[in-house]
Automatic annotation (TrEMBL):
Domain spans labelled UvrD-like helicase ATP-binding: 186-563
Keyword Nucleotide-binding included in the entry's annotation: yes
Name of the protein in question: Putative uvrD/rep helicase family protein
Keywords of the record: ATP-binding, Helicase, Hydrolase, Nucleotide-binding
GO cellular component, one term: cytosol
One MF term in the entry's GO annotations: DNA binding
UniProt keyword Nucleotide-binding, yes or no: yes
GO biological process: recombinational repair
Record-listed ATP binding positions: G207, A208, A209, G210, S211, G212, K213, T214
Pfam families on file: UvrD_C_2 (PF13538)
Length: 719
């Protein structure tokens, strides 16, 4: 073994540590030389001033992109043999070509970079031949300094070394922050496969709490922007990420730029919907959730659940389409278009369409079902028909269309512009006759839509819409004015859309997102066991596959978030209502789940906080069932020397530290330590599946340390 280097960390005994440290120094020096070259404006001079400015700007952009990676050029290496020649490839977050030396780095998101994560030992390079993996090696680098070398696979040492699990456990034992874990260095083979699922295919990634769904979805989006994706390559500014609430949307908005995803539209389904409707000041309520969290009448809760599910049923798209067909056919009665148009060189020519012709155009428009809606499509068909009928030369077409514009706009106004998506949706829901027109709904379903189980839940005084109505309003918008990505005055399909907490999106919303996105470019991340908002979501992933042709479901079988003790507790809760009982956790031992009961709740919570802090945790969450509980406890805990930042609305930002928040806002976040307040049957009704789902989400937020608190006896599932 070589003598210990002054830079060699204590306890680091890998025989090739010094060789790897020297290579790291060489790579850092090569990167700095390249950045210096790019920043030297005299070297980036062109034939004229304009060319020089362009070249200098491009070089400056390259330097700015590479600079953050100098401190951490790579995290792994591959020793490979191709065609009898052996070489070592270094894998990093940013590809780097050393033009004057051997210190190249391949990007993690390249096809070659993917070899670092798989179990495969052979592959076929693009230039033919056969490649063999001889060694995979993890290299922990921080601030240009090598800290640790870990072999993951080495054919000279018998193959698999167990190092991958060793590195994973080291990372998982680190404390959490207010950001997302960086998994590029520790992607597991099943996660890597999900992230790199063939582009152009809709993919549903199902995984239990802590399986890395959201992280994998974000990295998949970064992978989609790589030039190697070819025709499927996505532009960040043409992509959208939908998060379940604004707390998580703000969190994602901070994370995505770290993956090189600048300009991605990160928002919530509700914000996207009201923006597309042009009603940004419309207040969106979720009265169904309010009823489920506050009302103890199970009959009323079941009725509200069933009605919300029906509003999001995929059949409602054709219910809306049929309603608009009858509405617009009625509006066309007695209508006609006749206009004298001057064509240069040919004088005045009359273009006429009677009622029957207009009806045939409407039928054509419905058959085309274009992205920008039926009104725009109707105008387009009429304009094309006018130019074709009058045989207008190409050079005169713009002028003729200007003459036709005013009378055509007047006609469109009489047929299409008599209502808005919001008012038309409410008109449809208020009319049993309109609901019957499609013959898709049963009498019982029509009666259900006519009921109002939410009548006891207050509504805002200002203009509002309920979250369960929004997919229907979007359907109206899709047919009336179009749906997609707004670019100036036009609509384009999104390059790629990522849906987080995808079990809470209705089949109708999936159908609409499929229309708004390039075919096959949708990634859904979810867990049916965490369906807190199941009244909006599908019953199974089969319902989603039914509206997204070719969609595939991948299952992440392991959960990486929590210790064995916390994972086993969550699995016990989930096993009472369905599929998560067999989820496998990483074999990471930790503290036993702490239980505090039969005492003053505030004193018990304060004691739990201090115990968590004494155990070394700073990022701690107190999870309550409702926002009102969080507000009450936050104020009362100050008298017990416990100052927890309340997060009770979507406007609050999660910044780490000690926080207190309701379970619906905690979902999707993780903490070093979590304390479940009022963890008893009085708060989480043991007889109701929905309540057990809430308890599962509450108890699965912690990475390392979990406490359960009750003023009386703890819930029997966690006692």
């Amino acid at each position: 073994m070589p003598a210990a280097s002054p830079r060699r960390p204590e306890n680091e005994t890998h025989p090739e540590f010094d060789l790897e440290a020297a290579h790291l120094d060489g790579t850092v020096a090569a990167m700095l030389r390249q950045i210096e070259f790019w920043e030297d404006r005299e070297r980036n001079a062109g034939a004229d001033l304009e060319t020089s400015v362009i070249m200098a700007d491009e070089a400056g952009e390259h330097a700015a992109m590479l600079s953050p990676h100098v401190h951490h050029p790579y995290f792994g290496s591959l020793k490979v043999r191709v065609g009898g020649r052996e070489q070592t490839l270094y894998v990093g977050k940013h590809a780097f070509q050393d033009v004057k030396g051997p210190h190249h780095v391949v990007g993690w998101d390249s096809e070659v970079g993917s070899l670092f994560y798989t179990h495969e030992l052979t592959w076929t390079p693009r230039r033919g031949g056969k490649g063999t993996i001889r060694r995979r090696r993890q290299l922990d680098v921080m601030q240009k300094r090598l800290l640790r070398v870990t072999d993951l696979y080495d054919d000279e040492q018998g193959g698999d070394t167990g190092g991958r699990e060793e590195v994973l456990l080291r990372r998982l034992n680190e404390g959490s922050t207010a950001g997302m874990r960086d998994v590029v260095e520790t992607l597991q083979p099943e996660q890597n496969e999900a992230m790199r699922f063939p582009a152009g295919t809709p993919v549903i990634i199902q995984g239990a709490a802590g399986s890395g769904k959201t992280t994998i979805g974000f990295h998949r989006l970064a992978w989609m922007t790589n030039a190697e994706r070819g025709v499927h390559r996505a532009r960040p500014e043409a992509c959208m990420v939908l998060m379940p609430n604004r707390v998580l949307a703000a969190y994602a908005g901070r994370i995505l730029p770290e993956l090189g995803l600048e300009g991605v539209n990160v928002t919530t389904p509700e914000s996207w919907a009201v923006g597309l409707l042009g009603l940004e000041k419309l207040e969106v309520t979720d009265r169904t959730l309010t009823l489920l969290l506050t009302d103890r009448d199970n009959t009323r809760r079941a009725l509200a659940w069933r009605r919300a599910k029906l509003l999001g049923d995929a059949r409602m798209l054709d219910v809306v389409r049929t309603h608009l067909w009858h509405k617009w056919v009625g509006a066309l009665r007695g209508q006609a278009l006749s206009e004298a148009l001057e064509v240069p060189g040919r004088g005045l020519l009359t273009f006429s369409l009677d009622e029957a012709a207009l009806l045939e155009i409407l039928r054509t428009v419905f058959a085309q079902d274009s992205l920008d809606g039926y009104r725009a499509a109707f105008r387009r068909v009429v304009e094309e028909l006018a130019l074709d009928t009058l045989r207008v030369p190409e050079e005169h077409q713009a002028g003729v269309l200007r003459q036709l514009s005013t009378p055509l706009t007047t006609l469109l106004g009489r047929v299409f512009a008599s209502t808005t998506p919001v008012t038309e949706t409410r008109r449809l829901l208020g009319s049993p006759e309109a609901l019957k027109a499609s013959s898709l709904l049963t009498e019982r379903e029509i009666q259900l839509l006519q009921t109002d189980p939410l009548s006891g839940i207050p509504t805002p005084r200002r203009a509002h819409a309920d979250v369960t109505e929004l997919p229907l309003m979007l359907a109206m918008q899709a047919f009336m004015g179009g749906i997609g990505r707004t670019v100036g005055r036009t609509l384009e399909p999104f390059d790629h859309v990522v849906l987080d907490e995808a079990q809470d999106y209705s089949p109708l919303l999936y159908t609409l997102l499929g229309r708004a996105t390039r075919e096959g470019h949708l990634t859904a991340l979810g867990d049916m066991n965490q369906g807190m908002h199941g009244y909006k979501g599908p019953n199974t992933w089969d319902a989603v596959r039914g509206v997204l042709p070719g969609a595939q479901t991948l299952t992440l079988s392991r959960t990486y978030r929590s210790t064995r003790q916390i994972t086993e507790l969550g699995a016990r809760i989930a096993s009472t209502y369905n599929r998560a009982a067999d989820v496998q956790g990483v074999d990471r031992d930790g503290a036993e789940v702490q239980r505090y009961q039969n005492g003053n709740e505030l004193e018990l919570i304060a004691r739990a906080v201090k115990d968590a802090q004494s155990a070394g945790h700073t990022n701690i969450a107190i999870v309550t069932r409702r926002g009102l509980d969080a507000e009450r406890l936050s104020e009362a805990l100050r008298d017990h020397d416990t100052d927890a930042q309340p997060i009770t609305t979507q406007e609050h930002r999660f910044k780490g530290g000690l926080v207190i928040l309701p379970v619906n806002l905690a979902k999707g976040l993780e903490f070093s330590a979590a304390i479940v307040a009022s963890a008893d049957t009085g708060t989480y009704d043991d007889s109701t599946e929905y309540e057990r789902r809430l308890l599962y989400v509450s108890a699965s937020r912690a990475l390392h340390w979990l406490a359960l608190v009750s003023a009386g006896e703890l819930h029997p599932l966690i006692a």
